[in-house]
Structure formats: C-alpha cells, structure tokens
Design goal:
The chain is α/β, with parallel strands linked by helices. It is built from 9 helices and 9 strands. Helices cover about 35% and strands about 30% of the residues. Helix 3 packs parallel to helix 5.
C-alpha cells in the first residue's frame, strides 16, 4: 500500500429483496456495485452523490460498520468516523470530559489529554463538565471530531459531517478539518451531497450514482470539465445567485 492509506477493489454491497410467506429472495438492491478507488496518505477524497447513490454505504464498509457482499478493502492505518448528527452521536448522559476520556481509555490512552483534544478543535477547557444539550450544533460537531481524534487515526471518515450545520458554522468546521489534515497528517474520506462543500476540502473526487462510480479524478478537473452526464447534471442543479450566473454561497466557502 505504498503511498495509500486506503485501497478499495470491486466493492459490492447487495441487500436481498424477499417476498412471500417463505421470505424467498427474489432479487437484490445493489447499494454499491463494483466500486474501486485509492486514497493517498495526507489527501482528502470527496465522495459525492445524491441520497441513495451508495456513498454512505461505502463509508460504513470502510469503517467496519457494514459487511460487504464482495470485494476488498485494504487499510493502512487506524480509522475513525464523524457522523452527520452530532447530537445523536453523543451520549446525553456523559459530560464532554467523560466522552473524551472514555474514548482515550479504549483507544490510545497516552496519545492526548481531553484538554489537548479540545484545543485541537478550537474549544476551551470550560466545556469539559458540560453535557451535549448545552452546546450549539457546531460545538457538538467539534466535540465529535475531538472524540474521533482520540484514536489517533490515519484515516478520518466524515459522513455528511457538515450538512446539518448552518452555512457560517459549516465553513468554520470545514476550515477546522483542513487545518487538522495539515497538522496531524490526516487522510480524509469526505462523504457529501454538496459539490460546493466537496470543492472546499477535496484533493480528488469520486462521483457516485446508483451504487456505481460515474466519474473520478482531481477535484479541480472534475469540477472544471466534468465528463459524465450525471456530474454535469449535478453541477447544473446547483442554485445560482441572481445576475451573472454567480454560484451560491456554499460554492464559495
């Protein structure tokens, strides 16, 4: 795996469709159907597609949360994941300190302290004894990122990690991820439906539709001159501000 932190080969995730009183399998839903890609160390791969495209299923397989039907996933390091809903991802009965220290104890107890993890994500020690309900959405997601970093991952998977946040908060969290990537030499698998968000963070892009990859390449190349009709349709569907075809705010984050 020289130079790569992740290699995926011919990944398939098929879910059986059952009918009748005997629940016989009459077909399959092909959530992921023959997906292959590499992610180089220290880079961000944006996986873009509409709901149902298979992008989150790919992320779950890489994270070990979903068993594949076929194919191979080769990892060159530890993996941690940040989910879409930060409130649902945090235990409401645990303080920030307990959340972080529990993860440190289970993973890398000598890697960081809870205070150091919070400093990495731009939060101070004053939040250590507070519970999830006391924070804004952006603060909660920063705590979720801090928890993920407690495992000292080489690969960070972000599954729609900013889609539930307000626009200004989204930009700040994206800037944080870019900074952490640089400071900690992280590789990031960034799952999103938003091409503007993908552009902000990604070195390369994988565009998925119907469980398959329809386009892949350097982010700048894909966005400047998309080859696949589906990618062009996604770009055409991005809302424009009035006058001169200006892109939306999410595009210029």
């Amino acid at each position: 795996m020289t130079g790569n932190v992740l290699e995926v080969r011919d990944l398939r995730v098929w879910f059986p469709v059952k009918k009748g009183v005997l629940a016989r399998t009459v077909g399959h839903v092909k959530a992921v159907d023959g997906v292959s890609f590499d992610l180089r160390r220290g880079e961000t791969l944006g996986v873009v597609g509409e709901s149902g495209s298979g992008k989150s299923t790919v992320a779950r397989v890489v994270a070990g949360l979903q068993k594949p039907t076929a194919g191979e996933v080769r990892l060159g390091g530890r993996v941690a994941m940040v989910f879409q809903d930060p409130l649902g991802s945090l235990n409401p009965r645990l303080t920030t300190r307990a959340t972080l220290e529990e993860t440190l104890r289970l993973n890398r107890p000598n890697a960081f302290s809870a205070e150091q993890l919070l400093e990495l994500v731009g939060l101070g020690p004053d939040v250590l004894e507070r519970y999830p309900h006391a924070f804004s959405g952006g603060q909660r997601q920063r705590i979720c990122i801090a928890r993920a970093l407690a495992a000292r991952p080489e690969l960070l998977i972000c599954d729609e990690a900013v889609s539930a946040l307000d626009l200004s908060v989204r930009a700040a969290v994206l800037d944080l991820l870019a900074d952490l990537k640089r400071r900690l030499s992280l590789s990031i698998l960034f799952i999103t439906h938003d091409l503007g968000v993908a552009r902000h963070l990604s070195d390369s892009l994988l565009v998925m539709h119907g469980g398959r990859v329809v386009e892949a390449g350097a982010a700048a190349d894909v966005l400047r001159a998309p080859k696949a009709a589906y990618t062009r349709a996604l770009l055409a569907a991005v809302p424009r501000l009035p006058g001169h075809g200006c892109p939306p705010l999410s595009w210029i984050l």
